[in-house]
Every structure is written in C-alpha cells, then in structure tokens.
What does this fold into?
Amino acid sequence: MSETQPRRRGRPPGDGREAILEATGDLLRERGISRLTTREVAARAGVSEASVFYHYGDRAKLLQAAFDRGLAPLLAIAAQGEVAGADRHQVLERVGRGIERFLMEAMPILTAAQSDAELRDELAAMMSERDLGPHRGVSRVGDYLAAEQAAGRVRGDVDPHAVAASFVGTCVMRAFQATMHLPTRRLPPLSAVIDALDTMLEPPPG
Amino acid sequence: MSETQPRRRGRPPGDGREAILEATGDLLRERGISRLTTREVAARAGVSEASVFYHYGDRAKLLQAAFDRGLAPLLAIAAQGEVAGADRHQVLERVGRGIERFLMEAMPILTAAQSDAELRDELAAMMSERDLGPHRGVSRVGDYLAAEQAAGRVRGDVDPHAVAASFVGTCVMRAFQATMHLPTRRLPPLSAVIDALDTMLEPPPG
DNA sequence: GTCTATAGGTTGATAGAC
DNA sequence: GTCTATCAACCTATAGAC
It folds into this structure.
C-alpha cells in the first residue's frame, strides 16, 4: 500500500500475489466462476499453479480475496457522505451514474456467488452484517429528497424514499441487464427516467 | 403432453425423464449450478446416473432443458396481452406483483447462466432473438400509462415509458435482492413505491 | 517465493447386461 | 428404459528441490 520508493512502471518483479488476484478477477468476469480453475488462474497470471496455493491457501480463499476486491466499489459507495448539490436534476444524474458504475463492477461478483449455495450464503451474511445492499443507495437518495422536500423544493405528498427506490431500482435493472450481456438500448435511457421523476417531484405551483 | 387416459395420482411409474428435470431445477435453485453434478441429479431423482445421460445426452443439454423450463414464466409474461383495468393503483399493484413473482422464478436461472461464459452468451443470444428482457415489462406498463395519458388520467408532461422503467426497475431490484437471499425488508415495500408513482402521475387539477 | 512433478479425488460420459 | 461397473479427463492440493 505505502511506498517511500518512487514507483516504477509495470508490475514489480516477483509480485505474483497481485498478478494472481488480478487474473482471478479477470477470469471471473470474462469466463465465469465455473471456468475459473486454479490452472487457468496460474496460466494467466504467468506463475505456476503451486504459487496460487502458496499465496492463498486454497481455491475458496482465493475466491474470497477476489470477492473482497470486487466488492470494494460497493463498500466505497456505502462509505460516501451525504448527497447534495444545487440542481436536483444534476444531482440525480451524478448519483445515478455513480450507482450504475459501481454496480457494473460488483454485479459479476454478486451473480458469481449465486452459483454456489455456500458462497451465496456467506456473501449474504457478510452483506447483512455490514448492512450493505441496494437499500443503502435508496437511503442516500431518499434522505436527499427528504431534505429537498423539507426545503419546499419537492412536493410534500409523496414518500421520498419510495421515489428513491424507484430511481435506484432503475439503475439496478440497467446494470443487471448489462452484466448479462443483453443490450440496454431497448430500455429508456437513465436520463429519461431522471427527467420524468424530476418533473413529477416538482411542487405544484401556488 | 396430451393424455386420453384418466390421470393417476403421483408420478407415473417409469417417468424418470420428468423426475430428472425436476431434480435439476431444484438443485439449481437450492445449491447453485456449481454444485449441480449429474451424480446429485440422479440421486435426487431416484434414478441411476446413466439414465440422466440416456434421456438428455450430456450435462449441457440437461442444463438447457432446465433453463427452458425455468424461463417459462419469462416467456409467459411476454406473451400476455395488454395491461388494463379501471383503477390505476390496482393495475400497478397487480402487474407489479406479477412481475416480481415471475422474476423470482426466473432469476436463479439468469444468475446461474452468468457462471459460465458459454451459457451466458447462449442465453443472451436466445433472449435477444426473442426480444426478451425487462424492456418487455417496461413496454407493457409504458403502453398502459400512455393510454391513460391519452385519456387524460395521467399528467401529460412526462414520458410514460420512463416512469414504467422506474416501476419495473423497482421490481427487478426487489427480486434480485430476494434471489441473493438478502432481506428485502430494508427496502421500501412495493406498495409504497406504487403509492408515490400513482400520486405523482395524477394530472394537476384544473 | 517460485518451480516441477505427482498424488488423490471428483466428474462427465460410455459399455453392456437385463 | 434402467441398471451396475468402469474409464478417461480434469481439478485441487501437496512434496520437495532450487
């Protein structure tokens, strides 16, 4: 993590550990967890298979490490502060893109875990414990809309968190579709959804 | 499929083919595709492993058959007619529950396919060819809202299909969360989202 | 830390009797 | 159609040299 020496270009010689983790993540996304063998990982990382086990003990621990890294964006977005900004439309645009981007990184991990009940349950336990999940995004956006509502800039007769759920849900749907390698072009663009929600959130004149 | 004889109770003797397919689906949902071995399938179906290969040729074709069956609800919802009804709130409630129910059935199949690039790409090709996906639900709900808009029962300054996307997205998010065995209780209930959208869709008085 | 070589176990698939 | 028995391939993991 911390280095006093100036960084050199390329991978430091002998840093097989990092190369292995990177190869694992790449294979996980490209070929899927079923095709993820320690053989393939070693080959792509340019090391021997024994090195994989030397560094990570067994396949399960290697997967765990790859999952931890792959879910980092999910932790990052959860750790972010409050949502704020002058223009509501711009705020939703920025937050929505962020959620989609984060989900696109994490989604392959989430779906990969579904291939094995043990992995799935471990992941579910971890996420429950840390209170992770889409509801975090919903809370963040919902709190923002609630503040806007309190300031009189959002109509008072709707539940801000319910609207936030529909917004985050749109992002989840789009990310899920993209992860499955299905075209998202048949879905309304995110900006259109933001336009509609933004318009409907406007307080009635008078 | 068609039988002139009166049906007997229970599984007909010697219908191993059906038992195998059922066992495959069960294992797929319960333990995940990585743990789905022909051995386990045979054991749960109460037949020998050779029977599995006799009926389905190889593991890939067995999976294909299980996928076809598991995605039937997706085909069913796509084949449904137009959405209609007197009360908009009730219509959204009914359609939303339907989408959630269908997705809860199909989601394990969709995520299972992500474990193998070959399966994933085959599924994506099949869905593209048949024009399947969340956008079908979005279209159906969007067309309904557009009709309501034309009838003056939905405000005219929003894109009905964009609102429909946010609605279907909510259902996708909830189904995805449930499939991952994460609690959906931290998300706003679907009825709250319907309430909010319904309220916001109301045309301004006057 | 990294390698080669290999043990040990699991899996998909086939052969042949009934 | 269903079974038992078996095989070849593959995968995880370890041993031991460098």
